[in-house]
Each structure stands twice: as structure tokens, then as C-alpha cells.
């Protein structure tokens, strides 16, 4: 039997206590603080903001109240409103985004989730822990079709970025539900071309900038240093026709063989310089605007990131965030390698065990997806450096999207009951394993009517 979410009427909203207060009372009754952290795992004094710490041999988030917190979330709730039909449904059924947000949070809690990941509806920020996304830029993104490389050495670009980040941090920083900040989604931190862009990878972009561009000037300085000032050595390697170092600025780099081992080594070295500039700049910019909240950094696209970049990033972020692209099983060896590079906790920031919506009315298909979710989660929590797992997508993407992410609800808001039951059970067991709590203290699993 399908369960359909019920309309939250204005009258019901008036009669009910505020959702946040109800959730707080329920959590206190189950040994959880108002943010979902377990009161059985104390991590020092309350600081008023989320942080990270090692608690009983495990790396965890710590709530503003000072308790251990393993983040189980669901991302992309804002895509609920991707179509006019959905917007009209929300207006007719919930009255407003506030009404929809209350229902979503009730369901998340009922299904064993304690956070909303990123991509939340704004009203949800008052109701449940979440992650904010800062308006950053740098390399192109695998997920954003219109993204472009940016000259992060350019003072004019930096001024604009500082203003955008300051404005967003000002909106977010006083909210105790804020876990921390993400930067870019799936940035191309490697030397491969992305979507056949004319400028190629980020190093190629700097190589082909106008002669007077700040990024081009930094790149030319790097080339001269690497060649030890020997122009002939440089021109031979890069196949550039230039009679002087000054002429190199306007030289044609189109004949560069980027597959040459020596060139590739220099490209990786310069990408390291770019990474240092990128992470140092954003760290300083965020800390100037918000000195307390966690910096969760970029959402890395699985293993398409150079090790050298992750090492550099680890000096300027609090957590390494990884989205294991198209991986339905936990790759323990790869995650161990990523942790060994930095020693920082790792957040599974956006993970799914399917790439297409579930088959219509097929409990067996739902069961397969639910069992895959459990297997991935169990393997993840076996690693003491994993501090959270955020599931990709709350509701199936609209049918007209060229790339459809599967959710826990169908496009018509009916629920995948078997999948939800298995997901909720897996979440309960994960919390029990980490917090040491009994299953009986967890809420019901069905969609709330």
C-alpha cells in the first residue's frame, strides 16, 4: 500500500506546537540533545556551534550542546520545486514552503535521519541540522554545465568572491543548526579535460589567458622558475617560439604536448600552486566572515582528484568531503588512502546506491536498493574516520530532467514503502552501533500522515 503525505493545514499548524520544540522534546526522551547528538557521548563544553572531535576512538561531529553526532542526511530537497507542477502542488497541499519543510523534516526524522545535508529548502534551516553551500568558484565542475574556470589570482575576482561569501555567511552564521560550509560541487581537480571545453583543464586555462592576466603572470613566473631561467630549456619542452622571457607572455602554447611526462609533472606542480591559492583564499575569506563554523570544503567527485590537491586542501579545511560517483559499494581501500593523506575525518556528502528511479510497484527492486544502502552504510561506519553519510535525493527528480536522481518518494509524493522500511532500519542500527543506544528509542518509520 502506498502512503501519501497529508496536507498540513493552517488550522493544524496553529493547533500543533512548533515542530522544533516537539522534536526537542522527543530527542530529550531518547537520550539525544536538541540537535540529534547523543548525550551518552560528551565531547567537552557546549560551544554554540558544530565542530569535530575524536570521541571514544571515533571521529565525530560535535553538536553545539557538546555531544557526539554522526550525520545521517538527505540532500537536494530543494529540487522538490524544480517544476511548475510541483510548485502548484506545494501551494495547494501545504500552503507554503514552510508547510512543506515541516512535513519533510517530520519524514526525515521518522526515517532515521538527523540532518538534511545540503540543498535544503530555506525554512528547513530552522528545523534540522544542515550544510550551507557558499557561492565559490575555481575550476569547472562536473555537475554544473555552465561553470567556467576562474582566474583566482585576479584581485577583481577575489573582491567579488569575498563580497558574495560575506553576504552568505552573514545569513547563516547565527543559526545553531548550521553544521558547516561546502565550497564547489564536483570540481575538476585533475589534469583531464571536462566536457571538451575549449580551455581544457584548469592549467591549460591559465596557460592560454591574455598576457596581462594575473593568473597568466603567475604561471609565467612558475615556468621561469622551473626552467632555472634557461629560456632554451623552456622553449624546447613546451615547443614555444620566443626570443625572450618577455615574449613568452604572448607566445602560442597550442603546440604543447600535455601528455609529455615532463610537461605533465610541471602541470601538476602548478596545479598545486593554484590549489594552495584557492584553499588559502577561501579559508581566509570564510574565517573573516564566520570564525566558528566548520569548513567542509569541496565535494570531491570520488577519486578524480590528485593526491597533491587533497594534501594541500587538508591544511585549510576541517573535513574532507567525498561524493563516491557511481559507486554502489563502499570502496574501503580508496577511503583508507584518502584518510591516510590527511588524517582528517571524511564526510560522505552525497551518495546513492541507484542511478535511476525504482521500478514501479516492485518491492523486490526496492528491497535490492534498501539492502545496498545498508551494506554501504555498515561498511562506512566500520571506519572510525567516517563522520557522516548523506543520501542523494529526497524525491524522484521530475521526469523531464535529462539526469534523474532516485529518491525515497515517487514523483507524485507516494512513498517507496519497502525502501523506506529498510533505510530506516539501517539508520537505526547505525546510530545504535555508534551511539550505543537501543533500537526501541528510535521513532516510527512510516511516512507521517
Would you mind describing this structure in some detail?
The structure is a single chain. By secondary structure, the protein is of the alpha/beta class. The chain has a single domain, classed as TIM Barrel (Alpha-Beta Barrel). Helices cover 39% and strands 13% of the residues. The protein has 14 helices and eleven strands. The protein has a seven-stranded parallel beta sheet, with helices on one face. β6, α5 and β7 form a beta-alpha-beta unit. The longest helix has 29 residues. It starts with 9 loop residues before the first helix and ends in a 14-residue tail after the last helix. The N terminus and C terminus are likely disordered.
Task: Set out the fold topology.
Elements (H helix, E strand, L loop, with lengths): L9 H6 L3 H11 L8 E5 L8 E5 L2 E5 L4 E3 L1 E4 L9 H11 L2 H14 L19 E4 L21 H18 L5 E8 L16 H6 L6 H13 L4 H8 L6 H4 L12 H29 L4 E8 L5 H7 L6 E4 L8 H11 L3 E6 L11 H19 L4 E6 L25 H19 L14
Amino acid at each position: 500500500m502506498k502512503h501519501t503525505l497529508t496536507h498540513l493545514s493552517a488550522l493544524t499548524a496553529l493547533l500543533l506546537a512548533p515542530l522544533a520544540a516537539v522534536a526537542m522534546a522527543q530527542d530529550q526522551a531518547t537520550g539525544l540533545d536538541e540537535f540529534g547528538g547523543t548525550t551518552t557521548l560528551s565531547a567537552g563544553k557546549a560551544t554554540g556551534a558544530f565542530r569535530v572531535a575524536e570521541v571514544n576512538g571515533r571521529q565525530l561531529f560535535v553538536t553545539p550542546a557538546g555531544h557526539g553526532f554522526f550525520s545521517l542526511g538527505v540532500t537536494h530537497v530543494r529540487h522538490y520545486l524544480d517544476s511548475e507542477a510541483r510548485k502548484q502542488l506545494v501551494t495547494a497541499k501545504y500552503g507554503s514552503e514552510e508547510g512543506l519543510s515541516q512535513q519533510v523534516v517530520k519524514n526525515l526524522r521518522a526515517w532515521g535521519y538527523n540532518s538534511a545535508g545540503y540543498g535544503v529548502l530555506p525554512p528547513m534551516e530552522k528545523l534540522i541540522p544542515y550544510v550551507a553551500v557558499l557561492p565559490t568558484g575555481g575550476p569547472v565542475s562536473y555537475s554544473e554545465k555552465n561553470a567556467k574556470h576562474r582566474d583566482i589570482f585576479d584581485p577583481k575576482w577575489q573582491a567579488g568572491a569575498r563580497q558574495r561569501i560575506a553576504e552568505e555567511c552573514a545569513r547563516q552564521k547565527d543559526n545553531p543548526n548550521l553544521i558547516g560550509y561546502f565550497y564547489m560541487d564536483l570540481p575538476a581537480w585533475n589534469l583531464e579535460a571536462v566536457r571538451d571545453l575549449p580551455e581544457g583543464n584548469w592549467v591549460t586555462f591559465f596557460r592560454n589567458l591574455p598576457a596581462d592576466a594575473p593568473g597568466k603572470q603567475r604561471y609565467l613566473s612558475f615556468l621561469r622558475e622551473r626552467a632555472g631561467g634557461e629560456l632554451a630549456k623552456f622553449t624546447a619542452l613546451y615547443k614555444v617560439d620566443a626570443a625572450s622571457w618577455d615574449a613568452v607572455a604572448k607566445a602560442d602554447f597550442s603546440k604543447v604536448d600535455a601528455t609529455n611526462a615532463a610537461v605533465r609533472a610541471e602541470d601538476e606542480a602548478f596545479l598545486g600552486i593554484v590549489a594552495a591559492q584557492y584553499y588559502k583564499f577561501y579559508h581566509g575569506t570564510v574565517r573573516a566572515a564566520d570564525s566558528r563554523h566548520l569548513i567542509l570544503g569541496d565535494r570531491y567527485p570520488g577519486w578524480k582528484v590528485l593526491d597533491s590537491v587533497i594534501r594541500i586542501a587538508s591544511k585549510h579545511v576541517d573535513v574532507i568531503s567525498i561524493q563516491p560517483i557511481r559507486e554502489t559499494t563502499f570502496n574501503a581501500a580508496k577511503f583508507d588512502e584518502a584518510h591516510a593523506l590527511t588524517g582528517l575525518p571524511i564526510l560522505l556528502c552525497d551518495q546513492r546506491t541507484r542511478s535511476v528511479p525504482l521500478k514501479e510497484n516492485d518491492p523486490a527492486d526496492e528491497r535490492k536498493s534498501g539492502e545496498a544502502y545498508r551494506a554501504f552504510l555498515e561498511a562506512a561506519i566500520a571506519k572510525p574516520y567516517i563522520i557522516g553519510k548523506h543520501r542523494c535525493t529526497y524525491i524522484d527528480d521530475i521526469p523531464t530532467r535529462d539526469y534523474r536522481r532516485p529518491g525515497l518518494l515517487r514523483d507524485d509524493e507516494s512513498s517507496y514503502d519497502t525502501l523506506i522500511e529498510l533505510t530506516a532500519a539501517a539508520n537505526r542500527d547505525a546510530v545504535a552501533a555508534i551511539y550505543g543506544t537501543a533500537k526501541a528509542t528510535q521513532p516510527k518509520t512510516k511516512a507521517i500522515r
